[in-house]
Amino acid sequence: MRTTRSTRWALVCALAATLTSCTSSAAPAPGPTSAPDRLAAVCGHTKPGPASAPDGAITVDPGVDADLSAKTEANPPGTTFWLARGVHTLGDGEFGSVEPKDGNTYLGAPGAVLDGRGVNKYAFVFHATDVTIRGLTIRRFAAPPNEGVVNHDSGDGWVIEDNTVEDNDGAALMAGARQVVRGNCLRNNGQYAINAYKDGELTDLVIEGNEITGNNTDDWEARIPGCGCTGGVKFWAVDGADIRGNWVHDNRGAGLWADTNNNDFLIEGNVIEGNDGPAIFYEISYNAVIRDNTLRRNNIVEGREFADGGDNFPSAAIYLSEAGGDPRVPARTDKIDIYDNVLTDNWSGVTLWENADRFCNSAANTSGGCTRLVSDMAKCAPPTITKDPLYDDCRWKTQRVDIHDNQFSVDPRKVGCKTLCARMAVISNYGTFPDWSPYQADVVQQAITFAQDNTWHDNHYTGPWTFMAKDTGQVINPAQWQSAPYSQDENSTFVQAGG
After folding, report:
1. Fewer C-beta within 10 Å: the chain N or C terminus?
2. Residue 383 and residue 380: Cα distance in Å, rounded?
3. Residue 496's pLDDT band (cuts 50, 70, 90)
């Protein structure tokens, strides 16, 4: 049962009384009650597969090179294969792999391992639909960067459940439409745990109850600076994703990164902690609900890199870059709704950013595509871009973001900084490029700060929080943030913890 606002505020003040006084006599708005403190580990505890072959299943013995591939080819669609305990291999060539048929099921006995031995690139390939893979350990495949080991060609309707996929190059998994990824240990892979990309429509993705840890062991951002190709999970143009109940931790790069025309995401009930970059990075994308998550100690590595390099950009645990809500793009919400989350000792809180020079047909648009609202990018040029609807529709907007009923707590001593790790921001750059851009000067700075319905309210803050508005040159205190012209964080409360 949710405690009342006054009861919660009394508890907060009682706990803080020995350190400081509460800065507002008003009780905070209702805060989160259901975000988990910790999820159970999956790695080392995956649900075992059947100890004996189910009725009608084809038994696959270990030690017979490429036996799984040959038996798959020899049997009709819809066949169930049971892999007996031991190490299974797929031939000596780099393209040794399994080519499932529609409706096939692959079950691993306890102790069944599919081992690429650093030789085979991929485990399961091609475009079969409705394939199930359950109870296997899949390891040491040598997928190239941006490619994946399981469901390499993004077949639709796959169920990947209760597996351990570890120590591979590239991504452990690719994704297709209607794919369910549940109860897996996805760890220590060279690039991603999941690369959710498909050359075609990718809808209705479910990622639930997984442990996603230690990925990007090859540190691709260091190899190719600015590649945007690192982290726990990367999403590209996914329309409809439920990401819930996962433990996403200690990945090199972002924990969850949605990049380029994603839409209709529900990110809830996850524990996201200890990732080098943001816990959640939502970029040039639309409409999302981010709720009931616990975020701890994220972005400290990347935040410190900004600070040590003399850059005061407010790198944050939740980072929205040219991403916002739009009622014209069908989804379960028409905004980005961030609520009932608990954020503790991350490098900063939430940053809303919009690059004034990044829009369709601008060289600063590194995505190479256009928004979901414009089918012909060539129209995003003078004179048509200077007038509506293209003036609005040619640019991804950080708009309609609602940040409320969250708990933000930071102790700079634990994070290892003085002030830069306790910031919120709603900012843009001064538009300069290209010379025909209609978004030059402070057009976007004014819009993101004052005209695009971005709001903070009913939050509770503990720590020395400051705020950036309009650009990185303006750092303001909570009283200024709550006053005109910003008028943000109505009904929010601030507790200045000691130290």
Report:
1. N
2. 9
3. confident
First to last CA, the chain: 34
Beta carbons of 198 and 177 less than 8 angstroms apart: yes
Domain annotation covers residue 10: no
Q: Is residue 18 part of a domain?
A: no
Q: Give me the pLDDT at residue 37, please.
A: 59
Task: Give the total number of structural domains in the chain.
Answer: 1
List, for residues 56-97, the tens digit of each pLDDT value.
999 999 987 779 999 999 999 999 999 999 999 999 899 999
Q: Which pLDDT score is estimated for 497?
A: 65
CATH number, position 216: 2.160.20
More confidently predicted of 5 and 111: 111
The 3 state secondary structure assigned to the chain is: CCCCHHHHHHHHHHHHCCCCCECCCCCCCCCCCCCCCCCCCCCCCCCCCCCCCCCCCEEECCCCCCHHHHHHHHCCCCCEEEECCEEECCCCCCCCCECCCCCCEEEECCCEEEECCCCCCCCECCCCCCCEEECCEEECCECCCCCEEECCCCCCCCEEECCEEECCECEEEECCCCCEEECCEEECCCCCCEEECCCCCEEEEEEECCEEECCCCCCHHHHCCCCCCCCCEEECCEEEEEEECCEEECCCCCCEEEECCCEEEEEECCEEECCCCCCEEEECCECEEEECCEEECCCHHHHHHHHHCCCCCCCCCEEEECCECCCCCCCCCCCEEEECCEEECCCCCEEEEECCCCCCCCCCCCCCCCCCCCCCHHHCCCCHHHCCCHHHHCCCCCCCEEEECCEEECCHHHHCCCCCCCEEEEEECCECCCCCCCCCECHHHHHHHHHCCCEEECCEEECCCEEEEECCCCEECHHHHHCCCCCCCECCEEECCCC
Phi, psi (deg, nearest 5) at residue 159: -115, 115
Is-contact 217 243, C-beta < 8 A? no
- Residue 15 has a pLDDT of 33
Within a domain: 384: yes
Average pLDDT in the 360-382 region?
93
Model confidence band, residue 35 (pLDDT cutoffs 50, 70, 90): very low
Domain contains 19: no
Which pLDDT does position 28 carry in this prediction? 37
| Predicted confidence (pLDDT) at residue 498 exceeds the cutoff of 60 | no
